[in-house]
Amino acid sequence: MNEFLSCVKPYRREAILAIFCIEAETVFELIIPLVMADIIDVGVAAGDQHYIVMKGLQMIGMALIALILGQGYARFAAACGQGVGAEIRKKEFAKLQQFSFANTDHFSESSLVTRLTSDVTTIQNSISTGMRPAFRSPVMMLTALGASFFINTQLAIVFLIAAPILGFLLFQIISRVRPLYGVMQGAIDQVNRIIQENLTAIRVVKAYVRGEHEIEKFDKVNSNLRTTSERAFRLAALNMPAMQFVLYGTIIAILFFGGRMATVGGIKVGELTGFLSYVMQVLNSLMMLSNVFMMLTRSLASWRRISEVLDEEIDIRDDENTRDIRVEKGEIQFDHVYFKYKKEAKEYVLSDISFHIKPGQTVGIIGQTGSAKSTLVQLIPRLYDVTEGQVLIDGIPVREYPIRELRESIAMVLQKNTLFSGTVKDNLRWGKEEATDEEIDAACHAACVDEFIDRLEHGYDTELGQGGVNVSGGQKQRLCIARALLKNPKVLILDDSTSAVDTATEAKIRQGLADCLPDAVKIIIAQRITSVLHADQIIVLDDGKINAIGNHDSLLASNEIYQDIYHSQQEGANL
């Protein structure tokens, strides 16, 4: 709740003004029936036209003021609702930026998108459209109820029968529809997941001619969303006929008893007319309140989902052991490191990992698919934290470095290369925001980007599609390497990031890295022996454990796994 109030705080002025306009408008509207009663009982009864005209002008004036106040409410409520929605999105997105990989694993990407869009929209719309009935209805209902008792106490007792019936019906509807709203938002997650998967992998879908299969999958989740939504809104829609049933029943009862009282002089016709106006206001207020409860029920379901993101405990952050230090040389040591993704997991992904990398060394990591090569290097910049043991840089545990300083000194080219929408130069400057054209040219030369940059339509100013869809896999890899080089890191990690380039280009890139970063530690994860052939040391991983460490010659002479990989690739090259 405190998180929500912090989002409302910047817009409290708009909220207060909107509430003022609502309450003031309500007061003027409540006075109008009293003036109308005077026109009938005094002006019409006495035939006083001047009195009727003056009171009529009063009614028109009050109606115009109410109209202006209504316009003011609409303006301030919209500003408040949209502003609060923007604050929630900003706070939620900022929290996502703090997530470690482990935190992100707790949510699906599609669910996070829904929580940032659909759930926030539900809340902001509830504020924009719900403030009026929420603050208007109680005042109108209590004032109209008081006026009704003031006009005729006996006739007003009808409300004491109608109100409990309305409350019971509303409770029954809300108790059934509330859990469905959460299920409905979950169904939206599933729809978003299928859409996201297909947009990301559209080439694969077309290559395997699986369009019809994906349409069937989408129809299934879409039908589930439709069914869930129908159930929720069908129950919610019962609110209106239930309220109208009680409303018209109350009006009929008042007309019946009020008509009998009027015939015996127990109530004047003007009083009965005014009483009926207040009856309508009371019952309409109850109907508006019931709609507020329905909106509130759905908004609470959405806020619970948003709160799950905001309340997610960040497992990797600066703590009391953090010191104001920076990485100086990049010397890396793994000291009996164990790791598993979840504490409750029975088996470790990495077991008893120990090795030492000196400044300026190039280290290759090789192993069969699934041997946890990528997981190992992700422990260095604390994308995950070790379960047991320590990772040290320059002899200091990585936990003691400020996260920002640690990651600023490490550049990673991940297995899944990612480019963002924008120009080529915009993407390269992720490595160094203020990079000069000369620095960009140098990094691109080292990464062999200069071999194709002139073939792009506008060179460095070429607009890249989302994910870099308008460049090839090899070009994307080289752009990502150039981006990493611009950071001038102490540690450079290449996670199978030259798999899409030929061996000749790979050799040029390897030489470019040596020239650009002579003193930096370079860690290369690769499937190809040729990628790590010239490394100072090569780590052979097998099922999350170190099988051997050595250089190419020593491993080729003594290590069975390395020999198998080498000979299989040699045979493949000779075919």
Largest sheet data: 6 strands, mixed
- Please state the average pLDDT score: 83
| Overall strand count | 12
* Class from secondary-structure proportions: alpha/beta
Oligomeric status: single chain
Strand line-up across the major sheet: 6-9-10-3-11-12
Strand content: 5-15%
Overall radius of gyration? 35 Å
Shape field: elongated
Helix coverage percent: 55-70%
Task: Please give the count of helices.
Answer: 21
End-to-end separation: 66 Å
Uncertain segments are: none
Briefly summarize what is shown.
The chain is an alpha/beta fold.
Please provide a written account of the structure.
The chain is of the alpha/beta class and 575 residues long. The chain is built from 21 helices and 12 strands. It has helices at residues 2-8, 12-46, 49-98, 101-104, 109-116, 118-151, 153-156, 158-200, 202-207, 211-237, 239-263, 269-310, 373-378, 403-408, 424-428, 437-446, 473-485, 503-516, 529-532, 552-558, 560-574, and strands at residues 332-339, 350-357, 362-367, 388-393, 396-397, 410-413, 422-423, 463-464, 491-495, 521-525, 537-542, 545-550. Strands 6-9-10-3-11-12 form a 6-stranded mixed beta sheet. Strands 2-1-4-5 form a 4-stranded antiparallel beta sheet, with no helix packed on it. The longest helix is centred in the N-terminal third of the chain and has 50 residues, at 49-98. The chain is elongated. The protein starts with a helix and ends with a helix.
